[in-house]
């Protein structure tokens, strides 16, 4: 049973890494087309808290987070993060809606 859970966890981690690699590539391309410099990072942990820590360490002046209409999974993942950022970040937070 434990070996099966480990295999499922590894498979989920691999899928997540592929998805994040694709999203990072899309973000870089979009930023480059717009002439915007961005820095991308991935961390484990509660996203809202980690984003605030990262922004403070990098001395950012704003946090920008995207939101899309991808269904229940994405709403469950991002809504708590956006809410945490808006309520707890010492920096201004901008939530950007994805184009339809």
Count of folded domains: 1
How large is the radius of gyration?
15 Å
Measured by DSSP, the beta-strand proportion falls in: 5-15%
Strand order of the largest sheet: 1-2
Q: Your description of this structure?
A:
This protein is mainly alpha-helical and 100 residues long. The chain has a single domain (2-97), classed as Rossmann fold, CATH 3.40.50. The protein contains 3 helices and 2 strands. It has a two-stranded parallel sheet with strand order 1-2. α3 links the parallel β1 and β2 (93-97).
Quick description:
It is built from three helices and two strands, in the order ααβαβ. With 100 residues, it is mainly alpha-helical.
Give short descriptive properties of this protein.
single chain, 100 residues, mainly alpha, Rossmann fold, 3 helices, globular
Topology:
Blueprint: H1 2-34, H2 47-57, E1 63-67, H3 72-88, E2 93-97
Parallel strand pairs: 1-2
Helix pairs in contact: 2-3
